[in-house]
Amino acid sequence: TTKKEFIGLEGGSLTVQCRYGSHYADHVKYWCHGGTRIYCAILARTDKTSSANQDKVSIVDDPAGLMFTVTMNDLKETDSGWYSCGVELALGADDIAYTEVKVFHGVSVVNSIVSGEEGSSLTVQCLYTQRLRYLPVTSPPTPSRPWNRYR
Asked: Which end of the chain has the least Cβ crowding within 10 Å, N or C?
């Protein structure tokens, strides 16, 4: 992967695409959690069709596109940390690319930029984590407390 950081919302999913050279098309690929080659817990491998983590982490290789895709589901803040896309080579000299995953608890918006004409309505879709499900919703804007405006 060329992206060094991936950000996800607790309870959501995260997809990472890992690219590799054509000479690695027939090799086993994997996704592991850990900041170093020695301390890397493999969570998914392309040569294993099922695992205990299958609902949590999945991996799909696309040799024609020279990449494999990892999806992490049901994210938790504790999933934050360093991960790596790996290609298995002989004698443990694997080709590895490290990336950081950050999982946050809170609220995010689907589209961070919305626009409309003054006086018209806008819809903003917000995503929130499971922990916020039963908290009261704050009141909408009033003339004394309007939404931020940018012109």
From this structure: C
